[in-house]
Amino acid sequence: MQEKHGKRRILDTGIRELTIMGQGIGLALRGLRPIAEIQYLDYLLYGLQPLSDDVCTTHFRTAGQQSCPLIVRTRGHRLEGIWHSGSPMGMIINALRGMYICVPRNMTQAVGMYNTLLQSNDPGLIIECLNGYRLKEKLPSNLLAYTVPLGVPEIVNQGTDVTIVTYGSTLRIVQEAVETLTKQNISCEVIDVQTLLPFDINHSIVISLQKTNRILFVDEDVPGGAAAYMFNKVMEEQGGYKYLDVAPRTLTAQAHRPSYGSDGDYFSKPNTEDVISVVKEMMAE
User: Fold this and answer.
1) May I ask the CATH architecture of the domain 2-132?
2) Of 93 and 133, more confident
3) Strand, coil or helix: 14
4) Cα-Cα-Cα-Cα dihedral of 129, 230, 257, 259, to 10°?
5) What are the domain boundaries of the chain?
6) Distance between CA atoms of residues 158 and 225, nearest Å
7) What is the spatial distance between Cα 66 and Cα 31, in angstroms, rounded to a whole number?
8) Do the domains 154-284 and 2-132 match in fold?
9) Fewer Cβ in 10 A, N or C end of the chain?
10) By the 8 A CB rule, do 132 and 169 touch?
11) pLDDT confidence of residue 209
12) Which whole-number Å values give the CA distances from 116 to 112, 129, 145, 156, in the listed order?
């Protein structure tokens, strides 16, 4: 990429997230459209302060006279290792009000979100999921023009018995579980929220709930994190409680940093068997 676009547009940075964010802010305030990369999602913590204090507030505190269209690219979830596999989504949602928070399930969706953000004048964070990198996807013929609307969930599997709301890497886990549940005559509607900020601006999730009367929120943040945020949005703001036949549920990671190795990933975070078990409990309630 550097050979194609030149050293002034594609460049390495020091391994310091705070500096990388500062460079990105400076470029954005000077009219450029920088994409600043943080290698893994866990390391966003070290660049969080200028994103929260400066990037998220620029448009608001200048009464719309100045914007900071910085795009931050990172990746995470389902990686093995205690400092590389965190999913601090609750922290991100609550610290970065004022940025788009995009959680694509695959790289095609990620491209569409980059294209959408590049056409806007707003800052955004795109969290690519590590278990999506090796998926074989159908390449859009209009790759450079392909866009994904932000704040609009997508139904990736139609169903009538239970609505499962998720995003990013856990969507793959849910899809594996749905294959088994389908064979047991349990019909699951799977919704990919696509963005956490904004969240379901057209209230399409509650429409699904009106059909199924059961809902499960799945993600791999700690308890009380992003799943609780989605729960609040649908149950309280969208009035989803009115359509419940059984208690709504959340399925999250354990209340600790992920443990080491494959076993750590499996037991620290929601797995296929967990999803199957919770859905069957809901169907039996």
Assistant:
1) 3-Layer(aba) Sandwich (3.40)
2) 93
3) coil
4) -60
5) 2-132, 154-284
6) 27
7) 10
8) yes
9) N
10) yes
11) 98
12) 6, 19, 9, 21
What would the two tokens of residue 174 be? Answer: 């849910």
pLDDT at residue 264 in the model: 78
Ramachandran sector of residue 228 (left: φ over 0; alpha: ψ -120 to 50; beta: rest) = alpha
The full 3-state SS of 130-180, as one line of letters, equals HHHCCCCCCCCCCCCCCCCCCCCCEEEECCCCEEEEECHHHHHHHHHHHHH
0.70 surpassed by pTM: yes
Query: Please, what is the average pLDDT of the chain?
Result: 94
Say how far apart CA 219 and CA 202 lie, in whole Å. 21
The whole-angstrom separation of Cα 132 and Cα 120 is: 26
Exposure string over 177-208, b if 16+ CB within 10 A, otherwise e: bbeebeeeebebbbbbbbbbbebbeeebbbeb
> Given CA atoms 183, 219, 125, 197 in this order, what sign does their dihedral have?
positive
* Closest to 89 in 3D by CA, of 208, 239, 199: 199
- Whole-angstrom distance, CA of residue 232 vs CA of residue 259: 29
CATH number assigned to the domain covering 154-284 = 3.40.50.920
